[in-house]
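Exercise: predict the fold of this chain.
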Amino acid sequence: MSARPTELHLCGLAAVKARFENAPGSIVRLFFDEATSRKIAPMCKALAAARKVYRCVPPAELEKISGTLHHGGVVAVVSAPALVSPTSADIARWAQARTPVLLLDRIGNPHNLGALARTAAFLGVEHIVIPAHPSAAVPNDAAYRVAEGGLEQIKVWRVNDLAAFAKALAAVGYEVNGAATRGGRIDALAPGGKPVALIMGNEEHGLDPKVSAACTRLVTIPGTGKVESLNVSVAGAILLYALLRDRR
């Protein structure tokens, strides 16, 4: 199973600002370069009041702290959130509110996880569910960096059995849409209809057969056939918009 970090390094002004706006107390330490220092004065003031570390450092040290060249001039060290499973009461509440849900079946690349979280947040999807599977990416530094603040707007849950969870969603009234490279539909659901869940499959293997069987329908993006498929984060963006465009 993908290791769960105890701390996360949030890189880039968008991600760090989003964390500060949503949970300022979760920032443990803050490091930034001189150019960025003028843009984060309120953060520094808050950290000073809380007696937490904040420091302007040279670019080389910022790269070392963040572990990447793509730190965007600022790094916030935060405690990693716990990943828990939704309860039956959570699922019932989502269905009652017609809350859209994104399920990721063994998405292995954290960059894809981050890109999908960014799209989900942009389109108003508040919940992502991942399986407790060895190949499934978890929210890590890279995912947060690519999400550009999107993971601050999303609650990521983890379940032991994604197929069983998909069936539980269907049982409370969800239209559970499984992404398929062929054989599905792309039409939006009727306005005022069932709550929507979308399941995106593994980058190489697609949906697990048990997960596919748990879906209430399959959805496919029509293409020219000149290439086999799209990157999972691109496909997820198209499908989420197609399924939710009449719900906005």
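Check your answer against the key: The domain at 7-79 is CATH 3.30.1330.30 (60s Ribosomal Protein L30; Chain: A;).
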